[in-house]
Amino acid sequence: MRTSIGERFTGLVTGALLTAGALFATAAPAQAYDPDPGVFAYYRDTDTCPCSGGSLTDPFDDTYFAHDAGGTAVKMELNDAGWFIGKVEFHPSGEKLWIYDTRNDGDTFYVAVGYSSGGSYHDLGTFSAPGTSETVDLTVKDFAIPDGAYVDITVYDGAGRADYIAAARGTGGAVA
């Protein structure tokens, strides 16, 4: 039986698509933390800062909060089965969010940030560390948050704000 060039081409394309589909179907999904990581949250009234040391010490770069009248700084440490896997920091001075992923485990976590001010809520987005092969992956976000605004920081295991892990609330201080 003879087949035309078009039939052979169609057969090749169909076979390639089926092979590609099988490869994608068998690819392992990104690892998810199960159970979710433990989270320890630390708060500092930045009226009394500069602050460092003590519970702000960690194995990667230690946390330092600058003085900022009226601010509440937040540090959230994430641990999985005894491993320090990351941290999230909100610094009122400069309104910066720091996200560290400190374990090359094929997974990341996502941090949603928003603030309440003037009777309304303002969603600033969801962020994560870049996920490279470096020992520490770091993302720093610089926001313009009004003085005295409540800053909500929510950590998720899944993209799209899926699989809630923990939340904390800081306060934006005066401009440093």
Task: Describe the protein.
The protein has a single domain, classed as Immunoglobulin-like (Sandwich), CATH 2.60.40. 12% of the residues lie in helices and 41% in strands. It has 1 helix and 9 strands; from the N terminus they run H-E-E-E-E-E-E-E-E-E. It has one helix spanning 5-26, and strands at 38-45, 72-80, 83-91, 96-101, 110-117, 120-127, 137-142, 150-158, 162-171. The longest helix is centred in the first third of the chain and has 22 residues, at 5-26. Residues 3-30 have low confidence and may be disordered. Residues 1-32 form the signal peptide. This is Secreted protein.
Report Rg.
22 Å
Strand content: 35-45%
Q: Biggest β-sheet: count, sense, barrel?
A: 5 strands, antiparallel
Give the CATH architecture. Answer: Sandwich
> How does the helix and strand content classify structurally?
mainly beta
* Assembly status: single chain
If helices are DSSP runs of H or I spanning 4 or more residues, what is the number of helices? 1
Would you tell me which CATH topology applies?
A: Immunoglobulin-like
Query: Order of strands side by side in the largest beta sheet?
Result: 1-2-3-4-7
**Secondary structure: helix percent:** 10-25%
Which overall shape is indicated by the principal axes computed on the Cα atoms? globular
Overall mean pLDDT score? 83
Number of self-contained structural domains = 1
SS elements, strand count: 9
